[in-house]
Predict the structure.
Amino acid sequence: MPTTMPHASIGEALDVIHKQDVAIRAIPEVESVVGKIGRVESALDPAPISMVETVVNYVPEYKIDPVTGDRVLDSEGKPIRNWRPQIKNPNDIWKEIIKAATLPEAHPLQSFNLLPHES
């Protein structure tokens, strides 16, 4: 997860998280993105204010009929993809997210937990 400088103010951290959220949301495969700074008053969440956590949901690979739950087919009987041709798997989306979210004022993304999208 990216971090700002340890001495960053809340305003600076909010600015970084806003820029990252906007940049990540611009990726066509991303359905929603929400960033969080700070922590709750708990010993279980020792994150400093400079640490940023971001949750990204991406669109399913194939279009799904909302009524039947089946994949939507084109005129040739092939499933219609929601993802761009160069995006082959979720790791390709992750690479796009890293490129989009890397800001000069933030340290590089250090870890992630990539969970499959539930539709």
About this structure: Residues 62 and 81 are 4 Å apart (CA to CA). The mean pLDDT is 81.
